[in-house]
């Protein structure tokens, strides 16, 4: 397993860019700021997907995404959720991924991924115990909330006063 420091990204509202964890600066088609989050939509030059939409939800410690996959790389998922710290700024928002992820298959199930990665990162000193514990608590609360809404992330967020929409 590749043990690495948390992945950090920046979302520059003024320059309309997204700086990914490897430092690549990508143009953003659309940002939308709401009192409870930031929406981003941008093209992707990834071999498996061509477009990415994300909602950063700081108060929940979540980043919800839709990956628009190329036909031969499609995955059985509707939403992908990263757990971490998401910080709003006047001009730049920041994210720090805390390893745990959720795969939501709307109406069917929600799967928690990468627990082993979180434990390895904590053991290697990349993530403090308090942050690792928070990641577990955030992830399990999200799984519980999403499941209670028929495995529908959007419905759960709407019920929490965070109605999201996608492109």
Description:
It is built from 3 helices and 10 strands. The protein is α+β, with helices and mostly antiparallel strands and 167 residues long. The protein has a single domain, classed as FomD-like (FomD barrel-like fold). It is globular and about 35 Å long.
Give the helix/strand class. Answer: alpha+beta
What can be said about the biggest beta sheet? 10 strands, antiparallel
CATH-defined fold name: FomD barrel-like fold
Question: N- to C-terminal separation?
Answer: 35 Å
| Domain count | 1
Rg over C-alpha atoms, rounded to the nearest angstrom: 15 Å
Give the topology, please.
Blueprint: E1 8-12, E2 17-19, E3 25-27, E4 30-34, E5 37-43, E6 49-57, E7 62-69, E8 79-87, E9 92-105, E10 109-113, H1 115-123, H2 129-148, H3 153-159
Antiparallel strand pairs: 1-2, 1-9, 2-3, 4-5, 5-6, 6-7, 7-8, 8-9, 9-10
At a glance:
This is DUF402 domain-containing protein. The chain is α+β, with helices and mostly antiparallel strands.
Which terms would index this structure?
167 residues; FomD-like_sf; FomD barrel-like fold; 10 strands; DUF402 domain-containing protein; DUF402; UCP012622
């Amino acid at each position: 397993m590749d043990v690495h420091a948390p992945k950090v990204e920046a979302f520059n509202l003024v320059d309309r860019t997204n700086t990914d964890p490897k430092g690549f600066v990508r143009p953003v088609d659309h940002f939308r700021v709401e009192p409870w989050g930031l929406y981003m939509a941008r093209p992707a030059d990834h071999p498996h997907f061509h477009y990415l939409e994300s909602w950063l939800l700081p108060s929940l410690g979540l980043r919800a995404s839709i990956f628009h996959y190329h036909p031969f790389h499609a995955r059985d998922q509707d939403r992908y959720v990263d757990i971490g710290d998401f910080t709003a700024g006047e001009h730049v928002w920041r994210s720090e991924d805390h390893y745990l992820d959720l795969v939501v298959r709307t109406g069917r199930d929600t799967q928690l991924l990468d627990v082993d990665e979180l434990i390895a990162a904590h053991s290697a000193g990349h993530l403090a115990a308090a942050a690792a514990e928070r990641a577990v608590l955030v992830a399990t609360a999200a799984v519980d909330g999403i499941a209670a809404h028929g495995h529908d992330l959007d419905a759960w967020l709407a019920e929490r006063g965070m109605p999201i929409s996608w492109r």
